[in-house]
Amino acid sequence: MFEPGSRYHAVPTTTRALADGRTVTHLRRRFLPQPEELTGVGEHVVAAGDRLDRIAARRYGDPEQSWRLADANRAMCPDELTAVPGRRLRITLPAEASAAGGTAPDA
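Above: the chain's sequence. Below: its structure in token form.
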């Protein structure tokens, strides 16, 4: 249903039948991972003018992976992650890889 890089890729769906015979598929709720349970693979020190999409492109090779930075740093408002230069951001593996016992790649 969602691309492999999407934050919703691993979220299960549910299907239900409507009274008129049609079926509807819904995405179940995505629960945020606990950052301390994610496998850390690095750190990024925010510089003036940094943006999450650019950090994600540099660290993960894909600007659309900025949601991983928000998950790793317990951010409800992702823009706050880059608001103050000098802030240290955790870079982690995705929750699925961390749960599977993923390890940090060789540096």
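The longest helix spans residues 52-60.
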